[in-house]
Amino acid sequence: MKKIDFLTISGIVFGLGLVLWGILMGSPLSAFFDLPGIMITMGGSFGALLVNFQMEQVRQVIKVTMQVFFDKKEDVTSLSRLFVRLAQKARREGLLALEDELEEIDDPFLRNGLQMVIDGFEPDSIRDIMETEIHTLIQRHQLGQNLYRSWGALTPAFGMIGTLIGLVQMLSALDDPDAIGAGMAVALLTTFYGALAANLIFNPIAGKLAIRSDAEVSRKEAIIDAVLALQAGVNPRILQEKLKAYLPPQEREMLGDGRTIPEGERAASEEVMV
Q1: What is the DSSP track for 53-106?
Q2: What would the pLDDT profile of 172-212 be if each residue is shown by its tens digit?
Q3: Is the model's pLDDT at 272 over the cut of 60?
Q4: Are 101 and 88 in contact (CB under 8 A)?
Q5: Cα torsion 116, 118, 121, 127: sign
Q6: Is the separation of the CB atoms in 173 and 179 below 8 Å?
């Protein structure tokens, strides 16, 4: 289930708020607003993105960007509980009995892996198919990261272009004091806009996308190991220990004290070991 990532939103709002507060401490906010400077910095950098990437790639990135503002919890602990239950059922009733569980599984990656086990695919084929899907997932995620890293590099560059434009305008109108002020504003503010957008928005978004991608890939790798262990008939307790490697230390302790497998299920698991 996806939830709004208030940390990302709060970080952007907090950073912008402190910048605005610092501005208002020394001057009116209007002194830092320059429409030509915004057009040069943001419009120019976005135009360069369209040159660097294909339109279809830009459209795909819009979907990837939603991962920044909506946090989908990659809960390996719940995954462990699910596979322990599936392993117990498979050892009691056989792998074909797992087909009844497919409709209750929302994750397409997990459901597809279990379907291949039920259909009798070879373990090497299952791993190859599922790892290929992970590889394509990483490529899609890297596209979003690369786009925002590129945008983060382009905005300061176009800020410097705006600075050069402003200096040219200022130097070409030294006899007109009003024109000098406008040229100086463009010269300074475009650099400010570029640095702010790159370091508060675009580069941090690329970093957050990388973190989310690593978490999703780790969960899918855990699913592959669990699916193949399930097919091999690994004991539920051993399967639980195998999945603990994907958990942070505090969640491993929860699995280690027996709370993951209820007493009745734990007894059934020990019974099938005999």
Answers
A1: S-HHHHHHHHHHHHHHHEEE---HHHHHHHHHHHHHHHHHH-GGGGGGGGGG--
A2: 777 777 767 667 777 888 999 999 999 999 999 999 999 88
A3: no
A4: no
A5: positive
A6: yes
Q: Which two tokens stand for residue 47?
A: 């135009």
* Centroid of chain to Cα 26: 38
| The model's pTM | 0.80
Looking up tokens 């997990």 gives 110
CA distance 87 to 16: 51
Q: Which amino acid does the sequence have at 179?
A: A
Phi-psi category of 77—alpha, beta or left, where left has phi over 0 and alpha has psi -120 to 50?
A: alpha
Q: How many domains does the chain have?
A: 1
Domain extent for 209:
1-274
Strands (E), the chain: 2-4, 70-72
- In angstroms, the CA 133 to CA 130 distance is 5
In three-state secondary structure terms, 71 is strand
Cβ-contact 125, 113 below 8 angstroms: no
Residue that is written with structure tokens 């004091």 in the block: 177
The structure tokens listed for 131 are 């790892």
User: Tell me: the pLDDT tens digits for 11-57?
Assistant: 999 999 999 999 888 888 888 888 888 999 999 999 999 899 888 88
For 130-162, what is each residue's pLDDT tens digit?
A: 999 999 999 888 988 999 999 999 999 999 999
